[in-house]
Amino acid sequence: MLVLGVETSCDETAIGIVEDRFALRANVVASQAQLHGPYGGVVPEVAARAHLDLMLPTIDRALVEAGAHLSDIDAIAVTAGPGLAGALLVGVSAAKGLALARDVPLVGVNHLRAHVEAAQLEVGALDPPLAALVVSGGHTSIVVMDADGSFRQLGATIDDAAGEAFDKIARFLGLGYPGGPEIDRLSQGGNPRAYHFPRAMLHDGTYDLSLSGLKTAVIRELRRLEAVGEEPVLADVAASFQEAIVDVQAIKTLRAVADEGLEQVVLAGGVAANRRLRARMQADCDERGLRLIVPSIPLCTDNGAMVAASGANLLAAGHLDDLSLAVDPNLPLAVATEPPG
Asked: What is the pLDDT of residue 198?
């Protein structure tokens, strides 16, 4: 069974094709980074228009990569939310058109769930219960996949997502877009203890996170140094900022794992490509005897293969949508159906 996945939740036009839930046949991503670079962040209207231009060529490339024709596709999966409303609408409309034209099933997928289930394309069927830290440009969430295959969100950012914070500080430092890779690169030569930036909500008794104050603290420190005529070491600033983000995410995630009595952790989302976060999570999990599952970088960033995999799971559980499927920019993470093992 071939499932084609459509992902347009933000600024990546992505198409993936998955066979029988676990075999990756194609994963094609058309990046819009150059379009949004001059603005230092994603412009929703620009993103939606670019999705329109890129959709059909990206589908064609994915079919070629998979060695398949559109007539071979057995089902269409699409990100229905969360994400940017206009961008989501382009993807869902395209998916509906494909499903209608080919008379095949259609299934809407939650973007956060898809990030977690991307791991099955490399490690095989996930064996819940497990926890997941889903961290990207638009989302920073700590979730649990229960034994019955359902998802629960334990905590999330109450303001900026990690990727958003990286982008904003990178822009302030005069680095490129997207900011996460630039901060990661610059921090390699820096001292993560050079500046002590705040770790908000670290001991508040919740699993929620807040990064807006951290971002403000970095900007204030840079302005203070400028006012006294002191030149900051940008590598130290980047490393210290990055360490503060990683600290809160790792500590809160591992606390949730302990409280839930779990033994497995999935690290997913675009910011999961960050080298310091991957190393810290691996060290913390090793110390506690936990299994850490981290997809390869092409499956961490937004992609259509993760949507196809998640959609295949939902279809196997008997979940279907129809042409009334609507986009939901704030789609909650709650799926009660259990995919078979």
From this structure: 96
**pLDDT of 230 above 60:** yes
- Distance between CA atoms of 47 and 15, rounded to whole angstroms? 16
In the predicted model, what is the mean pLDDT of residues 157-163? 93
Element (H, E) at 46: helix 44-66
Instruction: State percent of the chain over pLDDT 70.
Output: 98
Q: How far apart are alpha carbons 313 and 260 in whole angstroms?
A: 24
What is the residue whose two structure tokens read 């996949």? 145
DSSP assignment of 277-322? HHHHHHHHHHHHT-EEE---HHHHSS-HHHHHHHHHHHHHTT--B-
Strand order of the sheet with strand 106-110? 23-31, 12-19, 2-7, 75-81, 106-110
Q: With beta carbons less than 8 A apart as the criterion, state whether 249 and 140 touch.
A: yes
Residue range 238-259: mean pLDDT, rounded: 97
8 Å CB contact between 143 and 333: yes
Q: What are the tokens at 114?
A: 């898809």
Q: Is the pLDDT of residue 179 over 50?
A: yes
**Residue 88 confidence (pLDDT) above 70:** yes
Q: Radius of gyration of the chain from Cα atoms?
A: 20
Closest by Cα among 265, 261, 243, 245 to 253: 265
Instruction: Dump pLDDT digits (tens) for 293-309.
Output: 999 999 999 999 999 99
Q: Which residues of 305-317 are buried (b: 16+ CB within 10 A; e: fewer)?
A: bbbbbbbbbbbbb
Spell out where 146-255 has E strands: 151-156
Q: Domains of the chain, with CATH numbers?
A: 2-118+303-316 (3.30.420.40), 126-296 (3.30.420.40)
